[in-house]
Amino acid sequence: MRNAFRDLAAHRRTRCRVGIDIGGTFTDLVLETGERRITHKLLTTPQAPERGVLDGLAALLAKADVAPGSLDAVMHGTTLATNALLERRGARTALLTTEGFRDVIEMGTESRCDQYDLMLRKADPLVPRSLRFAVTERMSAHGDVLLPLDRPMLQAQARQIGESGTRSLAIGFLHSYVNPAHEQQAAEIIARMLPSLDISLSSDVSPEMREFERFSTTCVNAYVRPLIRGYLDRLRAGLDALGVRAPLLMMLSNGGLCDVATACRYPVRLLESGPAGGALLAARLAREHGLDQVLSVDIGGTTAKLCFIDGGEPQTARSLEVSLFYRFKAGSGIPLRIPVIELSEIGAGGGSIARVDDLGRVAVGPESAGAQPGPVCYGLGGKRVTLTDVHLHAGRLSPEYFAAGTIALDAATASRALDAQIAQPLRIDTDEAAYAVAEIADEAMAQAVREHAVDTGRGVAGRTLIAFGGSAPLHAARLADKLQIDRVLIPAQAGVGSALGFLHAALAFETTQSLHQDLERFDASAVNALLAELTARGRAALGALDPDMPSSTTMHAFVRYKGQGHELRVPLADVPFDEDGGRRLSAAFVNEYVKRYGRSIEGAGVEALGWTVTVTGHEAPPATRGARRAQDAPATVVSSRIVETRKVLDQASRQRADFAVVARNALAMDVSLTGPMIVVDEETTIVVPPAFEIRVLHNADILLERRPLASSIEV
User: Fold this and answer.
1) Which GO molecular function entries does the Swiss-Prot or TrEMBL record give (predicted)?
2) Per-domain boundaries in the chain
3) Contact, 593 vs 568, CB < 8 A?
4) What is the C-alpha separation between 601 and 64, in angstroms, rounded?
5) Contact at 8 Å (CB) between 76 and 49?
6) In 3-state terms, what secondary structure has residue 696?
7) What is the C-alpha separation between 308 and 463, in angstroms, rounded?
8) For the segment 371-418, what is each residue's pLDDT rounded down to a tens digit?
9) 638, 673 contact by CB (below 8 A)
């Protein structure tokens, strides 16, 4: 396989690449070649996701009149691993661990996601007890061998694993993050006995302290690894059959790209790959338009994803919770220790199912109709009313534009379903039912933003909302009303935002490892050696064998006051450390602590628990899309672009009003128009209520501003 760095450099220069995002409802594709950008959207094929990708790619290449062999790179994000966890469709997986720690993944931390629910249930562990095996061995917290690995016992356990029909094995020993020798020895012995078994080591997948999170992460990696490898093999074969010879690069949850080999080794890092692309797009837009504080909202067919972006960079974290037993309730799922872009997610999308609950209240989501059977109006077998059906009844959707006209929408059937399932049970008219469903969904999103802001110590006031995804522009203005936000930015190609974000990603890989350091007795040589090792691992993961591709490293430590349970991420500036490194790192931590909490703790000791290095491949900066301020060019008000006027249900007034319907591709640059208005294109629909005016910026992005507020956005 060609070197990923060399191929990436080539495709960046020629700029003929495609981004592909598989969502729960739609598969989105974007092809960029030179100054042209062509998009395509089609329903996801859940039973064989690669089929939808290959069909969509063939249609996209035909639409763009681009030969398959002309592509230089294919960037891909997928929900396949996430869906396998949610639906428990992964490989039959066993866990081998230190004797006495067999039940760690079931006991967890003994915390409860709801302190007062006496009927609280926990999800079954990913690996049942019958497939959890233990062996005598023990490392100390300093990496010293306390008990040697019992090889005869290990061989006996390996035979049982083979007889159990297991396809994948997670090996997690106590304190292996500081000394992986026993895990590596066990893997070598088992691999000789069971050569077809897929093996994941916790010291490789997540070499950090806290055994519950480390073991859980390794089990998830092992659980989805055969599935992801099989999918990527089929996809690569399909691309070859199409004549695509370009490298396939996979999007990671932290916003970096990696090659297929790395993705197959660490598939747990693909879990949030799609939403990460959307956050990258929003961060790029924030930098281009000079926006210091942004709230990005990505709403597709199944979920809404929220992310705070400050200073042009998305918020990041080093942990993630997946497969929640109580959907969207923190603490009820499987904790993972992987680098991620920090997002808040709720079950509100175009396919979210609306219903009247047992108490007579309107509820929306989290259950979704997905791509199959889909909303009622698709005519594909869906029987339960969804948000898409509500928007169609309310007059917000234009069937001839929806998904470029590839899906015929049946408004009459959608209205009948809304009437029967929501209006009649509540004894209200159908418009009131449509208002109620949309309002509940909007309020759920707004509340999720408020809670995420509190959880992360961010404020919402003064931010610009960047909305993308097929459904987000339908909700953006109403959501801005609820959050008291005055500006909304809708990017060009908003309906395929995550796939577009993939095109802006760089090859990058983050490595993390625990190494405890009391900063009063700081061992600079040990820390320098670890950082050098992590840097080498990152470069190896990127395949950094091409000297023509420059790269850079960023380093952080995870530091806390002694006695605390969580750490702060502290950037490392002066590396390698000298004998004064402990004092300088302690001072940097106190500075970060004061920024976050407004105070320091005098006299408390400081300790570092983990270290991380991110290696990023670089390219010459791409040509910008232009940068001039809106006030430099006076806006022109026009009315000739209105193609029809339609009665649309306005959420603010709860009444139908005359909305102008405007085709987005008919709008001229620097055009200012006043709501109420519907702006339509092939990928999404923008609702502009009466309180807002819109302006098309020079790069085809659309700015909504609350009247009469003047714009200060850079364009």
Assistant:
1) 5-oxoprolinase (ATP-hydrolyzing) activity
2) 4-85+229-270, 89-213, 508-617, 630-706
3) yes
4) 60
5) no
6) strand
7) 9
8) 788 899 999 899 999 999 999 999 999 888 787 667 889 999 999 999
9) yes
